[in-house]
Amino acid sequence: MEGYPEPPVSAPVTHEWEFEGQRLVYDEYGSGSRTLVLIHGLLLSRKMHQPLAEALAERGNRVICPDMLGHGASDAPRDMWRYSMPLFGDQTLALMDHLGLDDAVIGGTSLGANISLEVASKQPDRLRGMFIEMPVLDNALLGCAIAFAPLLVATTFGAPLARALAFGARRVPRGGFYFTDLALDAVSQDPGPASAVLQGLFFGRVAPPRAERRLIETKALVFGHPRDPVHPFSDSDMLVRELKNARLVEAESIVELRLTPDRLTTEIARFLDECWRPKSASGRKRRRAS
For residue 278, how many C-alpha atoms fall within 13 Å in the half-sphere facing its CB? Predict the structure, then answer.
């Protein structure tokens, strides 16, 4: 049957660490020196990437799935100034330091995609490659405003109702359908920190500007999705044209990687193999070709 193995071959190991006085959580899948840091989407948790992390770990990769500040099981302060793309980039680099990683592949979806671009802009020498799914760039601003402005209003001015919904969602047992669990986790969040996250991101820079993106030489695999107003395909296409060393893969839909993941998972696994190929071997191949 097409899809991820069920049940998973091995459960992840959950760890805690501290960044600037805040407790943060991450899951570790697999082992070895080939590390991928895989970051979730906005207001979601590290569990979002569990099936993909398991599949990539089975292929010999060590996959780290963090809960960024204000998400999942990590601390969630209510100060909006703590949340911005540059700060999330700093947090990711600090996680690499905590793990003792000189370099890694960084990737993620939506929020995670833009965090990966921030890391590449800040310290490109620490990256072997980037996996970018659903980047939020110039063409996504209207869609994001339409999608997230009502959520911001609900978590800010409708906090009592949002807290009641969160309380009810936290009492629903987990362990059933994967997507149901993700939705329950999202609704279970305290509206105060969620509002702070949204405000911090809305009033800060969404991604490195085009001039910075054009300087990024990191190898990148970019997934674009058709018919997605919040993450338009045009943003993915534009990003591939801007980056110096990027390849675009068109997904069949926004849910392909979640419901029928074999094709896209194979693309990611091959990309990781390319990123971790010994540099000397790549050099010899180029010299032979020339």
Answer: 4
Cα dihedral 64, 210, 223, 12, rounded to 10, equals 10
Which residues, in sequence order, are bridge partners of residue 250? 224
The whole-number pLDDT of residue 208 equals 95
21 token code pair: 């006085």
Summarised one tens digit per residue, pLDDT across range 93-112 is 999 999 999 999 999 999 99
What is the model's pLDDT at position 204?
87
Phi-psi region for residue 40, left (φ > 0), alpha (ψ -120 to 50) or beta?
A: beta
Compute the distance between CA of residue 132 and CA of residue 275 in angstroms, rounded to an integer. Answer: 14
Q: CA-to-CA distance for 189 and 169, rounded, in angstroms?
A: 9
Name the fold adopted by 13-275: Rossmann fold (3.40.50)
The stretch 140-155 carries a mean pLDDT of 69
Asked whether the beta carbons of 232 and 142 are under 8 A apart, the reply is no
**Cα 49 from Cα 46, distance rounded (Å):** 6
At 20, give phi and psi (nearest 5°): 50, 45
Q: Does position 4 have pLDDT exceeding 80, yes or no? A: no
Q: State what percent of residues in the chain have pLDDT above 70.
A: 79
pTM of the predicted model, to two decimals?
A: 0.86
How far apart (Å, rounded) are the C-alpha atoms in residues 240 and 12? 33
CB atoms within 10 A of CB 32: 10
DSSP β-ladder status, 127-133 and 246-250: unpaired
